[in-house]
UniProtKB/TrEMBL annotation:
Organism the protein comes from: Methanocaldococcus vulcanius (strain ATCC 700851 / DSM 12094 / M7)
InterPro entries the UniProt entry points to: Flavin_trans-like (IPR036551), Flavoprotein (IPR003382), UbiX-like (IPR004507)
Residues binding FMN: 9-11, 35, 86-89, 121
Protein name: Flavin prenyltransferase UbiX
Gene: ubiX
Binding site for dimethylallyl phosphate: 151, 167
Function: Flavin prenyltransferase that catalyzes the synthesis of the prenylated FMN cofactor (prenyl-FMN) for 4-hydroxy-3-polyprenylbenzoic acid decarboxylase UbiD. The prenyltransferase is metal-independent and links a dimethylallyl moiety from dimethylallyl monophosphate (DMAP) to the flavin N5 and C6 atoms of FMN.
SUPFAM superfamilies in the cross-refs: Homo-oligomeric flavin-containing Cys decarboxylases, HFCD (SSF52507)
Group of enzyme by EC: transferase
Reactions catalysed, as given in the entry: dimethylallyl phosphate + FMNH2 = prenylated FMNH2 + phosphate
Pfam families: Flavoprotein
Amino acid sequence: MRVVVCITGASGVIYAKRLLEILNKKNIHTDLIISNSAKKIIKEELGVDWKDLTELSTNYYENDDFFSPVASGSNHFDAVVVIPCSMKTLSGIANGFSSNLIVRVCDIALKEKRRLIIMPREMPLNSIHLENMLKLSNLGAVIMPPIPAFYHKPQTVKDIIDFVVGRVLDLLKIENNLFTRWGNI
């Protein structure tokens, strides 16, 4: 399996870091793209340099690198996860405006009918956000706001993060036991 992980300029980069940690631990090939805004948010929210996250991936590409292998539909990857997804990126994907590598990779996922998971991190949502999400859902993307459940009685922030990341792994059909599933409580 090969997963492209895209981190954009929205709060919630901890979800991306945890996803990369798990995919790395499971020896799953990952291509990582980080937007310039996300690089700043990584420093702000995680207190680490964005380059630390590149060490968790197989390959790293700059967001303006249209010569990277993932910029072409002929280069095979199985899925793209935009985690977190800013409304700017969501709009670019929904409207086919491939102004950077992240949006281009998502465009490829849509046109090649590959798994595309978009994790918008914004609230409240306005009608434009909702219309863009509906458009992407109708095109086959999975819209997955990082909303945790509480039936498993999380005790720590890590428990909440693991629930969300575990659900992403479920959508990618990657075995995991990051959270207690409903009915197993």
